[in-house]
Amino acid sequence: MDAIRWQGNSLALLDQTRLPVEEVWNTYTDYRKVADAIRRLVVRGAPAIGVAAAYALCLAAMEYKGQNPEEFQKSMAAASAELAASRPTAVNLFWALDRMGLALGAAGCGAEALPILIREAEAIHREDVAMNRAIGAAGAAIVPHGARILTHCNAGAIATGGYGTALGVVRSAFTQGKVEMVYCDETRPLLQGARLTAWELVKDGIPATLITDNMAASLMAQGKIDLVLLGCDRMAANGDFANKIGTYGVAVLAHYHGIPFYSVLPSSTIDLSIPDGSHIPIEQREASEVTHFAGVRTAPEGVGVYNPAFDVTPHRLLTGIITEKGVIHPPFAEQLAERFG
Ligand code: MRU
């Protein structure tokens, strides 16, 4: 299962705004349209945004037909800046753009740079899938037999280069016969849990139960959740992390009920340049995502709206962090620095 395909001279993205009703692939030859697709969540999920942006820079290089190295470098910097402005929270976007910039170096013009950029974007893509497989293998070890797992938002194959982070652990544990049920928070306001996670799990034949976000506490109180696994958009040096809005609430609930709570992420999601979660920029999205449901107004005109796309969970609510380099337990600051510094 995948959502991003490089087609030699164009980029295909599975339109995640249309799932699960229809599976439509859009083709892109203009990097500006990819920036717009990231903004509109056609492609979403921290690692997937990074991969898509890397390919978008290949499209930008293809666009330049001149022979002036300075002009070319300027046009690439402008494309990178436009892509960087698409979404602020997931650090993978900036990580991928930086990595592409380093690969590009001082390459003279589009024709010279293109093969270098394509090779780098494909490497970013391929390495992301490999990291997810390693995450899955490491994470499956902490999943108990007969596990009833709660997840929030979508940290699956389509949120990454392929396979998934939190859902990668679920997939690996499922093949080991350990998963009894995955409860998917529907994840208001944009329903990534209902539309995307439930879709992935059903497609893979993994037992899935959809709940609205306000049902998790009740399930936990009944002893029906053994483990919480969810993704990450940016983790600070001390282990504080941003993830889909509502993650913090799930963390508090898990803590209260004594349920293990893990954030699952590749190293490209770790931002050691910021000491703690207060430095993570949180994306604010349009009011209409909250005042409307499936295009129908559900709130009165004139009401104020608060619509952050992410929240920050303090590291002390984490049981552990599952990465491609294994499972990390507290003290997180030391462990993160040691493995990723
Ligand atoms: O707004 P989204 O859908 O891009 O938010 C996605 C999440 O919060 C995911 O949990 C996170 O990016 C990790 S994806 C492996």
Automatic annotation (TrEMBL):
| Enzyme Commission number | 5.3.1.23
Pfam families in UniProt: IF-2B
Q: Does the keyword Iron-sulfur apply?
A: no
Annotated catalysed reactions: 5-(methylsulfanyl)-alpha-D-ribose 1-phosphate = 5-(methylsulfanyl)-D-ribulose 1-phosphate
Q: InterPro entries recorded for this chain?
A: IF-2B-related, IF-M1Pi, IF_2B-like_C, Initiation_fac_2B_a/b/d, M1Pi_N, NagB/RpiA_transferase-like
Q: Where is the active site?
A: 233 (proton donor)
Locate the site labelled Transition state stabilizer.
Answer: 153
* Keywords from the UniProt entry: Amino-acid biosynthesis, Isomerase, Membrane, Methionine biosynthesis, Transmembrane, Transmembrane helix
Keyword Isomerase found: yes
Q: Which GO terms describe its biological process?
A: L-methionine salvage from methylthioadenosine
- Bilayer-crossing regions: 41-62
Q: In which pathway does it act?
A: Amino-acid biosynthesis; L-methionine biosynthesis via salvage pathway; L-methionine from S-methyl-5-thio-alpha-D-ribose 1-phosphate: step 1/6
> Which residues are involved in binding substrate?
44-46, 87, 192, 243-244
Any one GO MF term held by the record is: S-methyl-5-thioribose-1-phosphate isomerase activity
Q: What does this protein do?
A: Catalyzes the interconversion of methylthioribose-1-phosphate (MTR-1-P) into methylthioribulose-1-phosphate (MTRu-1-P).
| Family the UniProt entry places it in | Belongs to the EIF-2B alpha/beta/delta subunits family. MtnA subfamily.
- The name this protein carries in UniProt is Methylthioribose-1-phosphate isomerase
Q: Give the originating organism.
A: Intestinimonas massiliensis
Q: What is the lineage of its organism?
A: Bacteria, Bacillati, Bacillota, Clostridia, Eubacteriales
* Gene field: mtnA
